[in-house]
Amino acid sequence: MLALTALAASAAPGRANGLQPCAASGTALGVARIVEIDTSTGALFGSISAQARESRFLAPKEVVLTFDDGPMPPVTRSILDTLDRFCTKATFFSVGKMALAYPSTIKDILARGHTLGSHTWSHPLNLRRLSLEKSNEEIEKGYAAVTLAAGQPVAPFFRFPGLSDSGPMLKHLQQRGIAAFTVDAVSNDSYISDSAKLLAHALKEVEAQKGGIVLFHDIKPATARMLPQFLTELQRRGFTIVHMRAKSGVEPMPDYAGKLAPLLAKSEKAAAAPGLVPFYGLVKPGEMAASDGLPVTEIAPALKTRPETTARIAAAKSTVTKTAVRGWSARADAPVAAPAATVGSWGTFVLPDQ
Hints:
Number of domains: 1
Helix content: 25-40%
Largest sheet: 8 strands, parallel
Order of helices and strands: HHEEEHEHHEHEHEEHEHEHEEEEE
Shape: globular
CATH topology: TIM Barrel
CATH superfamily: Glycoside hydrolase/deacetylase
Number of strands: 15
CATH class: Alpha Beta
Radius of gyration: 19 Å
């Protein structure tokens, strides 16, 4: 309870961090421009991947903020409040199970004008160890869950858990008109729980990559605590924010949507107060207010050839290896089962049954 109270206090506008609401202060970080992406060719963006990727669409010192694994209501809402205070936008890659557990937070992400994509159904630690049928099921079930929780189409933006992509899975995304996003700068908030150390590492990565797509997680309290200082430092150092949005939404496969609908009803029944149903205005993927007047860059990548098959990592391995990528450690052959319902020192949360 103390952790919850501290986090809530840090999220309150103009309190613990001494920052005024951005609209009143006139010092908002804001959004420099919007990049609208045509995902119909299933492009791959970001530098950390061995697969064929698109050229970087960001200029030096431009940053895209991304958050994975949520929503986790206290953490995600603290992050949303901070983004509001700085009048800036981000992209959230939500896990399907989490989305169905906390649909009101998913709706809040969209209501505040952010972009919402998917991060699989249950976050397997290495999709490449699954059969192609199972990995594609994780992708499709995740999209169905996030779309159901949102109550509207979401962006055809996808991030592989652990950045564990492959040619055949990218081929599937390509056939579905879904773009994949790896990253350029890794905050390492999966491993750093001290806010000051996390801030220093994240800024070092962003400086080294001269901006880029930055990876955070909206299930980590340390990320929520350090975010105001991180955004303040970005502004002080001359970085600007680019907001990604999709040209169109993704249509989930109806079979998955039908099977998951009872889980959503279960979550909503448990969360809703008697006689009180929250109302959220529909927000199209990436939609911004017409008065924003921001420059929009449209991207329509050419179709790339993706392999149909690839060698599979053996399913039965007893040792764990780690691959370091710019200070980020990926468990290359970790178990494929979904992680337990515990996140760091945050505590235990309950997910709907599969």
